Amino acid sequence: MFLFSATSVEFFKDIFFVSDVPRRFSGAIIRHSTMTLHGDAQKTVFLQKMEAGLFEIFEHQVICEALETEVLPTPLKPSLHLHISLDNNDVDAFVNGTDSVELRKEEVNLFYLQSINVAIIPQGKHCFFHISFRNDTLFRLLKQAPFKRLSYNVRKKVREAIENKGGMINAPRQVMLNAYFMMLVQDIRHCRFNEEATACYREKKCMLMLEHFIWQLLPQKGNKIELTTHDVIVLDRVKEYIKWNIHRPLTLKALCQQFNISTNFLVKGFHQLNAVSVTHFIHLYRMESAAKLLAEDDIPLNSVPLLTGYTSFKSFTAAFRKYFNCSPLAFCHP
Questions:
Q1: CA 83, CA 74: separation in Å to the nearest integer?
Q2: Which residues lie below 8 Å from residue 141, measured CB to CB, with a gap of 6+?
Q3: Is 208 within the bounds of a domain?
Q4: Average pLDDT along the chain
């Protein structure tokens, strides 16, 4: 199964009214998706859904012709939903039809949804992306050492939401859509592996997204540094250098020497700009590169560890299995 491809997302930008949508759109542009005309055809919803292990992934593209239209997003089953508004408009919504929430653009929120909900969507085009998962997936994550301090309050909010048949779990705390969230969304959208590998890959990306969301709920340290335009350019060069040299031993010390910068600047500046640490990004990109190389027919399996910075196939396999929860061989099948 595939989410909206880059081609279809670009294509969607040129659609302003229902009449602009070619009949071939659902079948040819978006694979395994559905198009739904609601009521008076004042709104059209393109819905994409897929399984991803512990998660289900949804993306909705909505064209609304009316000045203000009501839609009734009802979950397929009671569950938690990590919701991202990839939209330029704020949307008024009512969980359970009573509790008012505002879905602001470029914002990430965690909901428990059970019954019929109401969203008031303004005229135009809208995009909503969310992942759905069971309560115990969240509760297991909260048992990890960094998140234990949040466990009691989050569990309490989930229990209250269940009693109320729905609610926002992170209220009143707001979590903003940042570069790392968007990177994970794009990874999910552009995934092109076989069925088994795709399920493992997308499940990992969803888990990373949920972990990152929980991190944002923790008290944030107020030690940001001022980044000039030149600083941003240097940090972007560091990021590109990592991508092009993933086969080399990459350490903070080596990167600082390469770009003649301090460790403090690299660590704080990189995290501030990319919402992820340097070491985490290096590991993440090693795994991304390995997954893509494994899927290539013309690259020998025993070459992949060396091409991604590992000294042996054994150490590479252990790291890959821990990251994706499957063997590297799963990615080798066409």
A1: 14
A2: 147, 207, 210, 211, 214
A3: no
A4: 83
**Tens digit of each residue's pLDDT (9 = 90 or more) over 173-228:** 889 999 899 999 989 988 889 989 999 999 999 999 999 999 999 887 767 888 89
CA atoms within a 13 Å half-sphere pointing along the CA-CB vector of 162: 12
pLDDT greater than 90 at residue 86: no
Predicted confidence band of residue 36 (pLDDT cuts 50, 70, 90): very low
Report the SS3 class of residue 196: helix
pLDDT 10s digits, 249-276: 899 999 999 999 999 999 999 999 998 9
Q: Cβ distance 330 to 320 under 8 Å? A: no
Residue 220 lies in a domain: no
Last residue of a domain, one of 185, 217, 245: 185
Q: From the CB of residue 261, how many other CB atoms can be counted at a distance below 10 Å? A: 16
The crossing angle, in degrees rounded to 10, of helices 179-189 and 263-274 is 60
In a domain, 70, yes or no: yes
Residue with tokens 């080596």: 254
How many angstroms separate the CA atoms of 102 and 72, rounded? Answer: 15
**CA–CA separation, 148 vs 141, rounded Å?**
9
Is the bond preceding residue 172 a cis peptide, omega within 30 degrees? yes
Domain that holds residue 46: 6-185
Q: How many structural domains compose the chain?
A: 2
Instruction: Tell me how far apart the alpha carbons of residues 158 and 72 are, in angstroms, rounded to a whole number.
Output: 22
Q: Is the pLDDT of residue 141 over 90?
A: yes
82: exposed, middle or buried (C-beta count within 10 Å: 0-12, 13-18, 19+)?
Answer: buried
Dihedral of the alpha carbons of 34, 30, 53, 116, in degrees to the nearest 10: -30
